[in-house]
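Example record used in the benchmark description.
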Amino acid sequence: MKITYKHKITEKLKPQEIVDLLLKSRGIKDTKSFLNPASPLDLSLKDFGFKKRDIAKMIKLLQKIKKNNEMIVVYTDYDADGITGGTILWETLYVLGFKVMPYVPHRQKEGYGFSEKGIDTVKNKYDPKLIISVDHGITAIKEVAYAKKLGINVIVTDHHHRQKEKVPGQAVAIFHIPALSGSGTAYMVAKEMYQNFIPLADRSNLKELERNFHTDYLALASIGTIADLVPLTGPSRSIVSHGLQSFQKVKRPGIKHILKEAQIADREIGPYEIGFIIAPRINAVGRLEHAIDALRLLCTKDDTRAHELACKVGDMNTSRQDLVKEQLAEAQKKVEKLKEIPKLIILYSNHWHEGVIGLIAGKILEKYYRPTIVMTKGDGFYKASVRSIHGFHITDFLKTLDKYLTNYGGHAAAAGFTLISGKRDTFIKVAQKKADILIDNTMLEQVIEADIKIPIAMATKSLVEKIEKLQPFGMGNPKPTFVSEVVVMHAKTMGKSNDHLKLQVNDPLARSTPVDMVSFGQGEVFKKLTKNQKIQVVYQLNLNRWNGHETVQGIVKHLEL
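Model output (structure tokens):
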């Protein structure tokens, strides 16, 4: 493991000077707006470069549809970002008095985004005059043309990677905002609709809808943004910052019962609670069954129904965890049987659950630090999920293999695709050959990146308090990580099985107040430690608040003896 850091502090700096250095190294020039993000209520589609005419096309079509009492379908993705965005857009249109239905494609039967099968289902079931996509559609050129052929207009709202100038040209309007999540984009589009249709709406519903844009919809958009690993900078930081604050005011039964079922109703909701507790529950529904139940949970106003659905979602999340554990063990055995670990790991099975292959790919990448493709067989095709390492843009890589794929899409670090079964072996051979050329060995050296190397004496309560003001932390704004050379004053194991390590460390040169550190999953290191031993630690700082006292605590990410 190689440790890198952007800055090394040797002279004594004040806590604010250390924080200023952090912000500068992250390219943050406007400190004031970063620390005090603008309200998303003050942003509009025009702030993202959309012209009046782009918005006018959408509004004109909606006016015609409302006048004729025609049907709209909100066609949303099945992940947490799509479900939260779909909730925002469907509910806004519904409260504004439109005839509107939500549609969530089945992951196994229809796959990601638009498909002819899905569009046919929507046509036969609802016969809409308009489909609005949420969190997909920017690459669906053929599918949008197909919908148009059936007499259905399409408006695309998406944030995913687009293929240069290739966009669905037959769409009435395209709202593509890469700076936001799918739910963030839906929030902005829904707000534009709300502002344009206030005069035509039922006044009794408008008060609640206005409140939702201040509270519930911001909370939902923050869930989608964090779940989709969108960088928490610029407008996405605004959405998450204000969205997290709004959780205290949310009255939506679905959100309240998710928090109760997860036993976090009394907690302050932050990126951790969303990323590791709330979003996995919403995602579990689409992974194992049909994500429409997740959307129903977020939309229902019935407290009893919300309780039932939240319990069902919680049970599904437990089932998902068990399934990942079982099928990951199978995938792990396949890797262990390889004579040599290739630069691009490709694994496949006839029975792995399509809903968990992305999680398996992530776990394999985590262990071997290689781009990983995990495929499972369907009826005449393979569905694949891909996770990649820093510096290897996996979606750009898939572009070079598109002749083997029926469809693909994603980001730099994650993607998905469908492959005809008969092309599997050729695809694997060609993909691994290309990867051998494109992936340099230095890219495969796992690096732990820290922000600053500091003397441990600078890890003070004042520094931690100033760091806390940089929240929310997440993609694009990770929690600051430090490196220090320290001496071990005291060490012991902790936890039921002694799996974890607790340290008390100090500065080797300038003795000061000792700092407590916890290293999770590193209990076995205890046997290798001695008093006054010098070690190097990579860690993050927080305040351990207990029994009315606050003490500085380091959470160890890596240690070297």
